[in-house]
What we know:
This protein has 6 helices and 5 strands, in the order H-H-E-H-E-H-E-E-E-H-H. By secondary structure, it is α/β, with parallel strands linked by helices. The protein has a 5-stranded mixed β-sheet with strand order 3-2-1-4-5. About 19% of the residues have low confidence.
Amino acid sequence: MKKSIKLCSVALMLAGCGVAGMFSASADTPAPKAGEAAVSAVGKALEKADFLTKDRPNPKAKYYLFLYSASWCGPCCREMPHVVRTYRKIRQTDDVELVLFSCDKTEEAAKAWAKEERMKFPIVKPKKGNGIPGYKPGGSIPRLGIVDGTGKIIITGHPATLLKDWRKFCKPEEGKK
């Protein structure tokens, strides 16, 4: 009993001194500088993702718009020009990023469609989104999911509806603009 109490006391003292923090995964990650945003959990996972294009998402975004779409899908093709136009507005902010998760059967089909539609946003290779917080494959397409930096899904729905009001779902923190 006395031995257990001593061990617990030592552990608590070490934890209070910060020694326990040396062994955690976050000890390797430098703290962001003043005024600099931290890399989110989604951002970290996206840094390791397999992309079709050279475009990469902002790992420090606070919100991510995950678009599930494919070149063989008629409604997806009709919606894509609107998505491309909306992305021009989205990319003007550092807080929000759009990422396309290709539902195409081949990388070649996805690349050809991206080139044809002049997509300038990051495109994850087909079936390569696993491990990204908030990534939810399956279901109907086109589909848009808005997630925060932790991967918490805020809302999902049709891109035509959600892209009209994306700012409403991607609110800046209180006191910041």
